[in-house]
């Protein structure tokens, strides 16, 4: 089963993306994505 998580920008902390991950995964997701607020690619991390 999967659950929804929200990704926020590491630079401006804007919550831009949602994704899903397995419930058995323990670590937080880190993905490099484009931020519309910063207008550049930055590291997006899973928020609580």
Automatic annotation (TrEMBL):
> Do you know which Pfam families this protein is assigned to?
Ribosomal_L33
Statement: the UniProt record of this protein carries the keyword Ribonucleoprotein: yes
State which residue ranges cross the membrane.
Answer: none
**What's in the GO CC field?**
ribosome
Please name the InterPro entries in this protein's record.
Ribosomal_bL33, Ribosomal_bL33_CS, Ribosomal_bL33_sf, Ribosomal_zn-bd
Any idea which UniProt keywords this protein has? Ribonucleoprotein, Ribosomal protein
Q: Please give the family membership noted in the entry.
A: Belongs to the bacterial ribosomal protein bL33 family.
The identity of this protein, by name, is Large ribosomal subunit protein bL33
Per the UniProt record, the lineage of the source organism begins with: Bacteria, Bacillati, Bacillota, Bacilli, Bacillales
